[in-house]
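TICKET: design request
STATUS: open
ATTACHED STRUCTURE:
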């Protein structure tokens, strides 16, 4: 997976920036919020209005901040629970805004219903990809498998969008079809991994509430 393989190189790239931000007191949460708001705004106002190349380029800049916030959190001694939730939520918001911007443009002046459909399907599959992993981890499993994670998803959609903005025909068609296929395979891989790990394991029982005073004093026959 590209996200895992690129982390060492990304860490080296951001190292001097991280040192500078630490000196001026910038927090990882502030970087996360800035990256999320910037990516969403670029997707809505640039991609959504047909400025595909500049929209893709601007979103890419803000998405790179997602790699910076993790490095900054580690440099401060580790991230917080709130920061982890904020980061994951921001990722989902930025991803959704990109596909929503594409769907908005191509359902109007862009006039391409096939791209609208592909963008919406990719949006749903992206949500499922993340949800299956989160739900699996919530019941004590690991679910890191998959040919298409967020890094690959963003590369495909942003490169396809940018090339389409430069006038390269069918670039976004190819990117979205590839993303659809890869995301569908990833969802299947994750379900298969959850099935493998959960075999023979029962779902943890929910804690039972204590009986109230009236039921304790007057038990049912």
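STATUS: resolved
RESOLUTION: sequence designed for all positions
ATTACHED SEQUENCE:
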């Amino acid at each position: 997976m590209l996200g895992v393989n690129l982390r060492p190189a990304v860490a080296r790239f951001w190292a001097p920036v991280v040192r500078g931000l630490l000196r001026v007191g910038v927090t990882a949460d502030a970087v996360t919020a800035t990256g999320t708001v910037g990516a969403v705004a670029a997707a809505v106002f640039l991609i959504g209005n047909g400025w595909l190349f500049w929209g893709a380029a601007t979103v890419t800049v803000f998405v790179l901040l997602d790699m910076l916030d993790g490095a900054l959190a580690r440099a401060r001694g580790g991230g917080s629970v709130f920061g982890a939730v904020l980061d994951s939520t921001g990722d989902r918001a930025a991803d959704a805004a990109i596909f929503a911007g594409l769907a908005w443009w191509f359902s109007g002046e862009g006039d391409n219903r096939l791209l609208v459909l592909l963008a919406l399907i990719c949006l749903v599959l992206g949500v499922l990809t993340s949800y299956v992993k989160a739900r699996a981890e919530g019941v004590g499993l690991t679910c890191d498998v998959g040919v298409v994670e967020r890094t690959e998803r963003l590369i495909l959609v942003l490169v396809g969008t940018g090339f389409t903005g430069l006038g390269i025909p069918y670039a976004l068609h190819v990117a979205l079809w590839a993303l659809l296929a890869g995301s569908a395979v990833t969802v299947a891989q994750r379900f298969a991994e959850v099935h493998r790990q959960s075999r023979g394991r029962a779902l943890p029982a929910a804690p039972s509430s204590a009986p109230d005073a009236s039921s304790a004093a007057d038990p049912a026959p």
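CLOSING REMARK: The chain has eight helices and no strands. Helices lie at 2-24, 28-45, 52-75, 81-106, 113-138, 150-165, 171-198, 213-217.
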